[in-house]
Amino acid sequence: MKVARFEHAGRQQLGTVDTAAGTVTAIDVEGPSIDAMVALIERHGAGDRVAVSGAAVSLDEVRLLPPVMRPSKNVICVGKNYREHAEEFTRSGFDSSATPDQQAVPDAPIVFSKAPCSLAGATEDIVVPASLSASVDYEGELGVVIGKRGRAIEPASAYAHVFGYAVINDATVRDLQARHKQWLLGKSLDTFCPMGPWIATADELDPENLELSCWVNGELRQQANTRDLIFDIPTIIATVSASMTLEPGDIIATGTPAGVGIGFDPPKFLGHGDVVRIAISGIGEIENRIVVEPA
Q1: According to the model, what pLDDT value does residue 207 have?
Q2: Would the pTM count as exceeding 0.85?
Q3: What is the second-level CATH architecture of the domain 75-293?
């Protein structure tokens, strides 16, 4: 099942997506959560079925929204989780996590976060304040959506806690990332976490063998397979849940492969009007335009 949050005729709804037909069909969800998708995830975990509440509508007629709007915590992210990206990031000079001996590949997952205000839909603009527009970068990533509450989850049980997967762009202002010696501010700008186009439930794909590709203005910049992750999804879930309880609807971005803007010499940062498209096999794609706000 692929389930989306969308807006149609002025109304925000949840729906199941038929990618072959190019349609979405609204579903009814009731539950205690203030986020309808989280309520659906909770009901799914309880074995409840969803009820169709309308006719199929063309995806061309709807606006896709971020699948989850109100996770229980910040979007959890993993840094330097593909070997070649870890190396290009360390070389870039923007890596405040680099060790004194410039060890590029980390010994344990590097975990940081993006504020929920950064979440944006599959085709929404990434809006950049003019004062921060000189070093905007892209990062195509596989997103994991938690389906079952858990703390201190063992790696062998980790996939039982996953509801599904989505495409994420971990957009970043590199100057802020370097200036503040941490990653929260440079990654949490409003609209800096496009996500979607929907959630593909865990039964639909093999997360350890997914092709990820990213294009900027039609130029292929990133291409990798999730089997190349340094720390796999069970390790990430075990690491994060050792410190905090994971709740239904929580989002984990698993890291980006080589080919980001700072990996080039000179760097290829994004500017007004640039379009970033990210696709992951078995899920779908998101495409977002950079819009620089006037000073």
Answers
A1: 97
A2: yes
A3: Alpha-Beta Complex (3.90)
